[in-house]
Amino acid sequence: MNFEKTIERLRNRSALIGVVGMGYVGQPLALRFSSVGYRVIGFDIDAKKVALLNCGKSDIEHIGDQAIATANQSGMTCTTDFRRAGEADALIICVPTPLNKYREPDLSFVVSTMESIVPYLRAGQVVSLESTTYPGTTEEELLPRISRTGLTVGEDVFLVYSPEREDPGNANFTTSTIPKVVGGHTPACLDAGKALYEQAIERVVPVSSTRAAEMTKLLENIHRAVNIGLVNEMKIVADRMGIDIFEVVDAAATKPFGFTPYYPGPGLGGHCIPIDPFYLTWKAREYGVHTRFIELAGEINRAMPEYVFGKLVKALNDRRKALNGARVLVLGIAYKKNVDDMRESPSVEIMELLRAAGAEVSYSDPHVPVFPKMREHRFDLKSVALTPESLGGFDAVVLATDHVKFDFDMIRRHAPLIVDSRGVYRDAADHIVRA
């Protein structure tokens, strides 16, 4: 009976959808469910964020205030009170899954979230985990906690894993148009998961288990991490040979089959690609498997900020200048262009290296006006306005993130030295160094 009622409420959109974690993943998801007629309640431990959202304001640049306000007018509300989890017919968990200082999975956010909602679970609910994690997490961490309540998964509560696929700032895809992979703990769980997501997402892709869905997300991001590691290594080789790697990638991309272009940069950023591969390498050890290929790509990508730093040191030395005491401007500190997302940004790693070497570090980023509070990085800085005069006052500019809002022609004319890690400046110039 619980199953039939749950499916009916999901399909006729009378269900209340609870989204736990109103960040880069949770907010777009909550807005999408609200836009197709569901009532939505957002949960977050950040009281300031909750207050902001309830006032119709967004704390994420690419999500406009109007979108939040419209959802609020349709009944969306946010809360820090996890006792209200029992009101929701579906609880979708979108919390961070970082690495700890030993580069091992940190599931503390997932575990604490489950501990917060488990006392309020009831029959008829769907629980879906979207946080990226290693295969087995849903069965090993969520299932036992739900089972301890006396509720039977697959009969009373329906447990699902459906990996998030958000790409902040990508105008070509939205939450509704990105296909949604769904795996259930039982066939009934899978059916409930499909009923949940089919109402809001254009295409749902069912897989055989939560473990298969968890592995799917890791493969997607490991695919990117490995190929970026490859092209980053190729960049170093090409540079030694006096070859422009960006020209090579563009030429190779003209092949209509068997090649996908990946471009080098200063390292990996974002919450997924620098982190997810290590969730699999950690879990693989439990099965006696050493993931050498994945770990090698990780080593290469993690070394890229130091490579850019080294290119800057050499460029200054060639001009008879020391890095110690030099004024260095880092252009772009978000992890990729045209967003305000700072998670795992290689730009910040470069800033740390510069500061440790005695440089006077500044940054300019139109998407990040004030350097935010971060768990591992502390800079009391504001974004520098780019003018001919301000650029001329720096000894070097490191182009780390190629936001389209930058006036690259003006930067080229007035910066005395540019270390370009993004391939913006493709023609040779005495004051431009490829990195």
Could you characterize what this model shows?
With 435 residues, the chain is an alpha/beta fold. The protein has three domains: 2-208, NAD(P)-binding Rossmann-like Domain (Rossmann fold, 3-Layer(aba) Sandwich), CATH 3.40.50; 218-282 and 292-297, N-(1-d-carboxylethyl)-l-norvaline Dehydrogenase, domain 2 (Orthogonal Bundle); 303-434, Rossmann fold (3-Layer(aba) Sandwich). Helices cover 39% and strands 12% of the residues. The chain has helices spanning 2-11, 26-35, 47-54, 65-73, 108-117, 137-147, 187-198, 210-240, 245-252, 276-286, 292-302, 304-318, 346-356, 388-392, 408-414; strands at 16-20, 39-43, 77-79, 90-93, 126-129, 158-161, 180-184, 204-207, 327-331, 360-364, 396-399, 418-420, 432-434. The protein is elongated and about 80 Å long. The termini are far apart.
* Cα-atom radius of gyration: 24 Å
Percent of residues in helices comes to: 25-40%
The ordered string of helix (H) and strand (E) elements is: HEHEHHEEHEHEEHEHHHHHEHEHEHEE
Please identify the structural class as seen in this structure: alpha/beta
Give the CATH architecture of the largest domain: 3-Layer(aba) Sandwich
The named CATH superfamily of the largest domain: NAD(P)-binding Rossmann-like Domain
What fold name goes in the CATH topology slot of the largest domain?
Rossmann fold
- End-to-end separation in angstroms reads 62 Å
Query: How many beta-strand segments?
Result: 13
Tell me the strand order in the biggest sheet: 3-2-1-4-5-6-7-8
Main sheet specs: 8 strands, mixed
Number of helices: 15
Low-confidence stretches: none
Average pLDDT for all residues: 95
The proportion of residues in beta strands is 5-15%
CATH class of the largest domain: Alpha Beta
Q: How many discrete structural domains?
A: 3
Shape: elongated
